[in-house]
């Protein structure tokens, strides 16, 4: 049986909040608007860049006008498009993925982040080579927490299902709606206490993930 594991990106494999925060504040600075705090930016991550800019506008008293939103989103994408300067992979991520690959686990990515910065980040951090399939925020019309993108990635991997790994309320809801087991990385951007989030497994360091995956697939094939 194929062992397929699909990962979320922001808050799960990479800590991208510092770059998202910086890019959002560049947009605001160009408008002559005071910066938002890091905690605000971090709390706005999860539903993709268009939603992040919508929340930045609301928090900064810039309203909800769709044309203004389109203009500021375009400006944001210009700033959030270079090599990630402040982003880092979470501790142990690369080792864990290498160990999973060594145990013949097939891996994919399912993020709400737009395609351009997703590809840049995957390449920059050497994550690309592990991901057989990578769906981003614009791959389908639907985005997480709609389960469609997650089903799409497992289907493209040729797996009937598998384990989804993510960090946030959005990921937990996606997995639950998809009817799939979920490993929650507790050190990402979630705001809800762990016991209140749907999850099958929870872990706070990637060193623990290969054993969780091995145990999971032993259980489902037993
Ligand atoms: O960019 C976002 O808002 C969320 O991205 P993620 O789906 O990889 O967490
Ligand atoms: Mg995430």
From TrEMBL:
Q: What keywords would UniProt list here?
A: Carbohydrate metabolism, Hydrolase, Magnesium, Metal-binding
**Record's Gene3D superfamilies?**
HAD superfamily/HAD-like, Putative phosphatase, domain 2
Q: Which domain of life is it from?
A: Bacteria
Q: In which pathway does it act?
A: Organic acid metabolism; glycolate biosynthesis; glycolate from 2-phosphoglycolate: step 1/1
Its UniProt entry gives the catalysed reaction(s) as: 2-phosphoglycolate + H2O = glycolate + phosphate
An annotated GO cellular component: cytosol
Identify which cofactors the protein needs according to its UniProt entry: Mg(2+)
Stored Pfam families: HAD_2 (PF13419)
Give the molecular function GO annotations: metal ion binding; phosphoglycolate phosphatase activity
Which Enzyme Commission number(s) are listed? 3.1.3.18
Q: Which GO terms describe its biological process?
A: carbohydrate metabolic process; DNA repair; glycolate biosynthetic process
Job description of the protein? Specifically catalyzes the dephosphorylation of 2-phosphoglycolate. Is involved in the dissimilation of the intracellular 2-phosphoglycolate formed during the DNA repair of 3'-phosphoglycolate ends, a major class of DNA lesions induced by oxidative stress.
Family assignment from sequence similarity: Belongs to the HAD-like hydrolase superfamily. CbbY/CbbZ/Gph/YieH family.
What is this protein identified as? Phosphoglycolate phosphatase
Q: Which organism is it from?
A: Salipiger mucosus DSM 16094
């Amino acid at each position: 049986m194929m062992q397929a594991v699909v990962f979320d990106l922001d808050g799960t494999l990479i800590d991208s909040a510092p770059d998202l925060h910086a890019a959002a504040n560049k947009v605001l600075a160009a408008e002559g608007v005071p910066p938002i705090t890091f905690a605000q930016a971090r709390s706005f991550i999860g539903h993709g860049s268009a939603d992040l800019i919508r929340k930045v506008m609301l928090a900064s008293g810039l309203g909800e006008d769709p044309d203004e939103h389109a203009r500021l989103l375009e400006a944001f994408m210009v700033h959030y498009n270079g090599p990630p300067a402040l982003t880092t992979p979470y501790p142990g991520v690369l080792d864990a993925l290498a160990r999973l690959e060594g145990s013949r686990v097939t891996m994919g990515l399912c993020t709400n982040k737009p395609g351009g910065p997703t590809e840049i980040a995957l390449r920059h951090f050497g994550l690309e080579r592990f991901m057989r399939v990578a769906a981003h925020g614009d791959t389908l019309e639907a985005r997480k927490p709609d389960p469609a993108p997650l089903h799409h990635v497992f289907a493209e991997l040729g797996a009937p299902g598998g384990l989804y790994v993510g960090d946030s309320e959005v990921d937990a809801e996606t997995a639950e709606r998809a009817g799939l087991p979920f490993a929650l990385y507790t050190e990402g951007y979630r705001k809800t206490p762990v016991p209140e989030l749907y999850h099958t497994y929870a872990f706070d360091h990637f060193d623990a993930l290969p054993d969780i995956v091995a145990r999971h697939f032993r259980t489902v094939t037993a």
